[in-house]
Amino acid sequence: MTVVGTDLAGNPIDGVNSFSFMTTGPQPDTIRPTVLSATPDTSAIGIELAPTLKVTFSEPMDKASTESSISFTTPAGFHASSFSWNTAATELTFKADIAFPHGTSVAWKISTLARDVAGNTTAADTVKNFRVLRLNTAMIDFDPETSGSLGAPSYFRQTPYYNSATVGDDGGPNNDRLYLGFRLDVLPEKLTRITFSQLRWPVGRIFGDPFGKLGELLLEPVDVGDIIEYSFDGKNPQTIADYHTPPLKDAFVVPPSTVPFRGEFDVTEWTAQDWQNRGIRNKRTQYRLRFQNPTNADTVKDQLYCDPSYNEVLAALWVTYEYP
After folding, report:
1. Torsion of CA 214, 219, 224, 227, to 10 degrees
2. Does residue 25 fall inside a structural domain?
3. Is residue 26 part of a domain?
4. What's residue 40's pLDDT?
5. What range does the domain containing 174 cover?
6. pLDDT, tens only, 190-214
7. In CATH, what number is assigned to the domain containing residue 71?
8. Are 308 and 236 members of one domain?
9. What is the Cα–Cα distance from 166 to 217, expressed in whole angstroms?
10. Exposed / middle / buried, residue 101 (Cβ in 10 Å: 0-12, 13-18, 19+)
11. 83: in domain
């Protein structure tokens, strides 16, 4: 700045008459924002089907441009939604608009459309990927050591070999209960959740009218340990204790709509609980079928019956589970 002029008497200003100065204040923001972290981690596996994703930026971001920069590139047809920011506008969470199918490998990115509040864009696309939970179904054959029919009041059992099975009144002194045990050690230790479990006991023949004469058919979870135990009355092997073993939960009543009887039961809750307690249960789950009334004392056989001539698989447990 130059000062030119005179005093009141008309004398010119003498000496230095040029000056300079500098103003102070914030410099323009020209630093590009960066992605500090993102979850799920790259190449993570076993992520839930409808995960919440989180991105942390190095500085406050312009919300609209950043949200529009996010996309799912694989598989097609999924879009980012449910955006939420922290108060500093540095952390963004979001979800896909619909849940991913089991086993899907997901790739997503933040493009250079993302800007900070000063208008600076990211220098390059940020690309991430993960895989959601997979799904599998295992068919588990029955365990002969904990499966088979036990009758009362004789409690006689010749052998643990399970080659036929009955439930109901044999027309004589005995009423039979059917025990079905399964080992769960074929399931992977790292499974995250049992989503469905079905017990299948395909009936080959129905004698008499067990549903009409013996009341409701009951299915209940039990614990007979690693083997059906025998005791002896001095002459014959008996199974008194296991015949009367108390149920672990209230019985499920087979509804009349299942007659004609198919022998398929949803036991998801019980199987899942036994898996959760697998250390105590020695990786076993066990069930019992019995009629509400032991007998109607009419000397007529009223039974459900199955053997390999009717169905090759006497009993099986189908377990569907999620795993990483």
Report:
1. 90
2. no
3. no
4. 97
5. 138-323
6. 999 999 999 999 888 999 999 999 9
7. 2.60.40.1220
8. yes
9. 13
10. exposed
11. yes
Do 160 and 309 share a domain, yes or no? yes
Q: Say whether both 96 and 159 belong to one domain.
A: no
> Helix, strand, or coil here: 24?
coil
Residue 33 carries which DSSP code? P
The last residue of one of the domains, among 77, 112, 132, is 132
Mind listing the pLDDT tens digit for each residue in 260-309? 667 899 999 999 999 999 999 999 999 999 999 988 888 899 999 998 88
Nearest to 81 by CA among 111, 57, 50: 50
Supply the pTM of this predicted model.
Answer: 0.83
| Residue 208 token pair | 């008499």
Q: Kindly state whether residues 92 and 182 are assigned to the same domain.
A: no
Domain total of the chain: 2
Nearest-angstrom CA–CA distance, 196 and 160: 29
Q: How far apart are CA 182 and CA 143, in angstroms?
A: 5
CA distances, 36 to each of 31, 90, 114, 131 (Å): 15, 10, 14, 21
Q: What is the DSSP string of 86-116?
A: -TTS-EEEEEESSPPPTT-EEEEEE-TT-BB
